[in-house]
Amino acid sequence: MQCIKLFYAYVCFMKARVNLTIEERLLSEIKSYAAEKQVSISELVEDYFKQLTKPAKRPTIFDMVKNLDIKEKFGDIPDLKKAYYEDNAAKYGF
Length: 94
What we know:
By secondary structure, the protein is mainly α. The chain has one domain. Helices cover 54% and strands 9% of the residues. Strand 1 (2-5) and strand 2 (10-13) form a beta hairpin. It is elongated, with a radius of gyration of 28 Å. The termini are far apart. 0% of the residues are buried. The model has no long low-confidence stretch (mean pLDDT 83).
């Protein structure tokens, strides 16, 4: 059992053992890689499974705006600031 101390409580995670069948050549490459990165093979496998099961990233508002086709709807407006002031000048008479 692995426990992590938070500010006010301990959070414990239960670990389970898993047997894997892997080719000898691949296992030796994994061992070399793990030694080079200074992590255990268990950590590598656990991190890989966490990446597989992680929920898909929801698009942010910035991603959605970036994907909009603004030119199709509004045409090609080279200077939006200038257009804004021209519209307000016409609207409010200044």
